[in-house]
Write a structure and sequence with these properties.
alpha/beta, 5-stranded parallel beta sheet, 6 helices, 5 strands, 19% strand, binds adenosine-5'-diphosphate
Length: 161
Amino acid sequence: MPLKLAVYPGSFDPVTYGHLDIIERALKIFDGVIVAVARNSEKNALFTVKERIDLLSETLKDRPQAMIETFDGLLVDFVRERGATVIVRGLRAVSDFEYEFQLAQMNRSITKDVETLFMMTSVPYSYLSSSIVKEVSSLNGPVDKLVPPLVKSALDKKFGR
Ligand code: ADP
Protein backbone atom coordinates (compact mmCIF):
# COMPACT_ATOMS: atom_id res chain seq x y z
CA MET A 1 0.00 0.00 0.00
CA PRO A 2 1.29 3.50 -0.79
CA LEU A 3 2.30 5.66 2.16
CA LYS A 4 -0.48 7.90 3.40
CA LEU A 5 0.97 11.37 3.76
CA ALA A 6 -0.63 14.48 5.27
CA VAL A 7 0.51 18.09 5.23
CA TYR A 8 0.04 20.21 8.35
CA PRO A 9 0.55 23.83 7.27
CA GLY A 10 0.88 26.92 9.41
CA SER A 11 3.14 29.72 10.52
CA PHE A 12 4.40 28.01 13.69
CA ASP A 13 5.72 31.34 15.04
CA PRO A 14 6.67 29.59 17.35
CA VAL A 15 5.54 25.97 17.70
CA THR A 16 3.33 25.39 20.77
CA TYR A 17 2.05 22.34 22.66
CA GLY A 18 -1.21 22.88 20.74
CA HIS A 19 0.56 22.26 17.42
CA LEU A 20 2.49 19.31 18.85
CA ASP A 21 -0.73 17.73 20.08
CA ILE A 22 -2.20 17.88 16.56
CA ILE A 23 1.02 16.48 15.05
CA GLU A 24 1.13 13.55 17.52
CA ARG A 25 -2.50 12.73 16.85
CA ALA A 26 -2.11 13.04 13.07
CA LEU A 27 0.85 10.64 13.23
CA LYS A 28 -1.51 8.00 14.60
CA ILE A 29 -3.62 8.27 11.45
CA PHE A 30 -0.99 8.87 8.75
CA ASP A 31 2.31 7.19 7.88
CA GLY A 32 3.95 10.58 7.69
CA VAL A 33 3.11 14.22 8.38
CA ILE A 34 4.84 17.06 6.59
CA VAL A 35 4.83 20.08 8.88
CA ALA A 36 4.87 22.90 6.34
CA VAL A 37 5.99 26.36 7.43
CA ALA A 38 4.49 29.06 5.20
CA ARG A 39 7.24 31.25 3.76
CA ASN A 40 4.77 34.09 3.18
CA SER A 41 4.35 34.36 6.96
CA GLU A 42 7.76 36.06 7.30
CA LYS A 43 6.33 39.56 7.69
CA ASN A 44 5.01 40.39 11.15
CA ALA A 45 6.63 37.23 12.47
CA LEU A 46 8.76 37.17 15.60
CA PHE A 47 10.93 34.26 14.44
CA THR A 48 12.47 33.93 10.98
CA VAL A 49 11.37 30.92 8.93
CA LYS A 50 14.78 29.35 9.61
CA GLU A 51 14.42 29.83 13.37
CA ARG A 52 10.91 28.33 13.28
CA ILE A 53 12.15 25.32 11.32
CA ASP A 54 15.04 24.82 13.75
CA LEU A 55 12.64 24.91 16.74
CA LEU A 56 10.29 22.43 15.06
CA SER A 57 13.14 20.11 14.00
CA GLU A 58 14.67 20.06 17.46
CA THR A 59 11.29 19.53 19.15
CA LEU A 60 10.34 16.71 16.77
CA LYS A 61 13.77 15.08 16.53
CA ASP A 62 12.45 11.77 17.94
CA ARG A 63 9.62 11.66 15.42
CA PRO A 64 11.15 10.73 12.05
CA GLN A 65 7.68 10.42 10.52
CA ALA A 66 7.23 14.18 11.05
CA MET A 67 9.08 16.01 8.29
CA ILE A 68 9.63 19.76 8.45
CA GLU A 69 9.52 21.74 5.21
CA THR A 70 8.64 25.18 3.95
CA PHE A 71 6.26 26.10 1.17
CA ASP A 72 5.59 29.03 -1.11
CA GLY A 73 2.58 29.64 -3.26
CA LEU A 74 -0.55 27.57 -3.36
CA LEU A 75 -0.84 25.02 -0.58
CA VAL A 76 -2.69 22.45 -2.74
CA ASP A 77 0.14 22.54 -5.31
CA PHE A 78 2.64 21.82 -2.54
CA VAL A 79 0.45 18.98 -1.22
CA ARG A 80 0.20 17.36 -4.66
CA GLU A 81 3.92 17.82 -5.40
CA ARG A 82 4.73 15.95 -2.20
CA GLY A 83 2.38 13.09 -3.09
CA ALA A 84 0.16 13.84 -0.10
CA THR A 85 -3.62 13.72 -0.22
CA VAL A 86 -4.71 15.34 3.02
CA ILE A 87 -4.33 18.75 4.67
CA VAL A 88 -4.58 18.61 8.46
CA ARG A 89 -5.80 21.67 10.35
CA GLY A 90 -6.54 22.17 14.03
CA LEU A 91 -9.77 23.75 15.23
CA ARG A 92 -9.91 25.65 18.49
CA ALA A 93 -12.73 28.00 19.41
CA VAL A 94 -15.65 28.75 17.09
CA SER A 95 -13.68 31.76 15.88
CA ASP A 96 -11.37 29.44 13.90
CA PHE A 97 -14.31 28.00 12.00
CA GLU A 98 -15.17 30.84 9.62
CA TYR A 99 -11.67 31.20 8.22
CA GLU A 100 -10.98 27.47 8.10
CA PHE A 101 -14.29 26.88 6.32
CA GLN A 102 -13.38 29.45 3.63
CA LEU A 103 -9.91 28.02 3.21
CA ALA A 104 -11.13 24.43 2.92
CA GLN A 105 -13.82 25.40 0.39
CA MET A 106 -11.32 27.38 -1.65
CA ASN A 107 -8.81 24.52 -1.71
CA ARG A 108 -11.59 22.13 -2.65
CA SER A 109 -12.67 24.32 -5.51
CA ILE A 110 -9.09 24.24 -6.82
CA THR A 111 -8.75 20.48 -6.58
CA LYS A 112 -10.90 17.57 -5.56
CA ASP A 113 -7.83 15.37 -5.03
CA VAL A 114 -6.95 16.89 -1.69
CA GLU A 115 -9.11 16.56 1.43
CA THR A 116 -8.93 18.82 4.49
CA LEU A 117 -9.13 17.00 7.81
CA PHE A 118 -9.96 18.98 10.94
CA MET A 119 -8.89 17.85 14.34
CA MET A 120 -10.48 19.34 17.44
CA THR A 121 -8.04 20.89 19.85
CA SER A 122 -7.43 19.07 23.13
CA VAL A 123 -9.14 20.88 26.02
CA PRO A 124 -5.98 22.19 27.74
CA TYR A 125 -4.94 23.87 24.47
CA SER A 126 -8.27 25.29 23.33
CA TYR A 127 -7.21 28.88 23.87
CA LEU A 128 -3.57 28.43 23.01
CA SER A 129 -2.14 30.26 20.01
CA SER A 130 1.32 31.37 19.00
CA SER A 131 0.15 35.00 19.29
CA ILE A 132 -0.96 34.59 22.90
CA VAL A 133 2.35 32.88 23.73
CA LYS A 134 4.28 35.82 22.23
CA GLU A 135 2.19 38.33 24.11
CA VAL A 136 2.54 36.58 27.47
CA SER A 137 6.25 36.00 26.96
CA SER A 138 6.89 39.63 25.92
CA LEU A 139 5.47 40.62 29.31
CA ASN A 140 7.66 38.01 31.02
CA GLY A 141 4.63 35.92 31.97
CA PRO A 142 4.78 32.12 32.42
CA VAL A 143 4.68 30.07 29.21
CA ASP A 144 6.05 26.78 30.58
CA LYS A 145 2.74 24.97 30.12
CA LEU A 146 2.28 26.33 26.60
CA VAL A 147 5.55 25.64 24.78
CA PRO A 148 8.49 23.20 25.09
CA PRO A 149 11.50 24.41 27.16
CA LEU A 150 13.55 24.99 24.01
CA VAL A 151 10.92 27.38 22.65
CA LYS A 152 10.69 29.15 26.00
CA SER A 153 14.47 29.78 25.90
CA ALA A 154 14.20 31.09 22.34
CA LEU A 155 11.42 33.47 23.42
CA ASP A 156 13.47 34.67 26.40
CA LYS A 157 16.35 35.41 24.05
CA LYS A 158 14.12 37.30 21.58
CA PHE A 159 12.78 39.45 24.40
CA GLY A 160 16.29 40.18 25.68
CA ARG A 161 16.27 38.06 28.84
P1 ADP B 1 -1.47 30.12 15.32
O1 ADP B 1 -0.54 31.22 15.00
O2 ADP B 1 -2.91 30.56 15.44
O3 ADP B 1 -1.06 29.23 16.44
P2 ADP B 1 -0.69 28.56 12.95
O4 ADP B 1 -0.84 29.19 11.61
O5 ADP B 1 0.70 28.32 13.38
O6 ADP B 1 -1.56 29.29 14.01
O7 ADP B 1 -1.54 27.21 13.03
C1 ADP B 1 -1.42 26.11 12.18
C2 ADP B 1 -2.59 25.19 12.45
O8 ADP B 1 -2.54 24.74 13.80
C3 ADP B 1 -3.97 25.82 12.29
O9 ADP B 1 -4.82 24.85 11.72
C4 ADP B 1 -4.39 26.12 13.71
O10 ADP B 1 -5.79 26.11 13.83
C5 ADP B 1 -3.77 24.95 14.44
N1 ADP B 1 -3.56 25.22 15.86
C6 ADP B 1 -2.82 26.18 16.42
N2 ADP B 1 -2.88 26.13 17.77
C7 ADP B 1 -3.70 25.09 18.07
C8 ADP B 1 -4.21 24.53 19.28
N3 ADP B 1 -3.89 25.07 20.46
N4 ADP B 1 -5.05 23.48 19.21
C9 ADP B 1 -5.40 22.98 18.00
N5 ADP B 1 -4.97 23.47 16.82
C10 ADP B 1 -4.14 24.50 16.84
